[in-house]
UniProtKB/TrEMBL annotation:
It comes from the Bacteria. One of its GO terms (molecular function) is metal ion binding. Keywords: Iron, Iron-sulfur, Metal-binding, S-adenosyl-L-methionine. It comes from Ruminiclostridium papyrosolvens C7. PANTHER family: PQQA PEPTIDE CYCLASE, RADICAL SAM DOMAIN PROTEIN. This is Radical SAM core domain-containing protein. Residues 9-219 form the Radical SAM core domain.
Length: 294
């Protein structure tokens, strides 16, 4: 194997764990509502059953095709994984009980999906969005000294919002600002790439001046601590990376086996060659990966 980076050989330290496919929103760019025919929670009994088999991971990111905070047992789930560092990914429009959120001291970060800096702009992306709830959550994040990040999906509707989003990130002491493109919009991106590039360069410069880490759409988002991020779907299926919905191989099911055994099996070997990363459309910026089957 000849690569400049071979993170895919290293055992994952973080898993994206989908505890629900329910969501309180229907954002214009979201593909989840088309993929999920019968949204539901993963029963708490099943989560307890999966606990030991997920013990290999140091970090659990609660996210997926649903909004984790709408799970009826969300705060109990935090207690179940009190020995893990939790990253919560949320759309921000569900009220957060910060007393319960911080009760076990295991919240590493809360990542808010923010696509506009005002109620008007957020409602352009999702008409039912509760911007007042987002602002209250952000204020409480400051009060409880919570590490927060912004996830922004760049679409034509919010192209002119980036400066305002930068100022919003500064106001609420965001630690990291991530921006990406929506799935299925490659034609729009290519047609506007020069304007997009200019705006993103300006955003990156402004954020870095404010001491906020920036992660752009052409940077790999599939790693954590220089190792691939694994995915566990609501039915317990384990996938090798966070691009699982685009055809990455399933390597097992946590209801039947623990992750270490999956990692040691032949089912993970093909991923560890790096060939999926080289051909990955979502993270095609990894052009320095050189695949070899030798």
């Amino acid at each position: 194997m000849n690569t400049k980076t071979d993170f895919y050989k290293r055992i994952p330290q973080m898993v994206l764990f989908e505890i629900t496919t329910k969501c309180n929103l229907a954002c214009s760019y979201c593909v989840a509502r088309k993929l999920i025919k019968d949204p539901s929670d993963l029963p708490i009994e099943r989560i307890i059953a999966i606990k030991d088999n997920i013990s290999k991971f140091d970090y659990i990111a609660l996210c997926g095709l649903g909004e984790s905070l709408v799970h009826k047992n969300f705060y109990q789930i935090l207690e179940i994984f009190s020995d893990k560092k939790i990253v919560l990914v949320t759309n921000g429009s569900v009220p957060i009980d910060y007393e319960k959120l911080m009760a076990h001291g295991n919240i590493d970060a809360v990542s808010f999906s923010v696509d506009g800096a005002s109620e008007k702009e957020m409602k352009r992306v999702c008409s039912s969005y509760r911007f007042d709830v987002l602002l209250n959550n952000l204020e409480n994040s400051l009060k409880y000294n919570t590490n927060i990040a912004f996830n922004c999906t760049l679409v034509k509707e919010n192209m002119e919002e980036l400066d305002a989003l930068k100022e919003m990130a500064i106001k609420y002491k965001v630690k990291r600002f991530k921006i990406g493109f929506p799935l299925g919009q490659s034609r729009w991106v290519k047609a506007n790439i020069n304007d997009i590039d200019t705006k993103l360069c300006s955003l990156e410069e402004g954020l870095k001046e404010a001491g906020i880490a920036y992660e752009g759409p052409f940077e790999a988002k599939c790693t954590f601590n220089d190792a691939p991020i694994a995915v566990v779907s609501k039915n317990g299926n384990v996938y090798t990376c966070c691009d699982y919905y685009c055809g990455r191989p399933q390597v097992g099911n946590l209801f039947h086996d623990d992750f270490q055994k999956m990692w040691d099996k032949r089912s993970y070997e093909e991923f560890r060659t790096g060939r999926f990363c080289v051909k990955c459309k979502q993270y095609h910026n990894l052009k320095d990966l050189i695949y070899s089957n030798t």
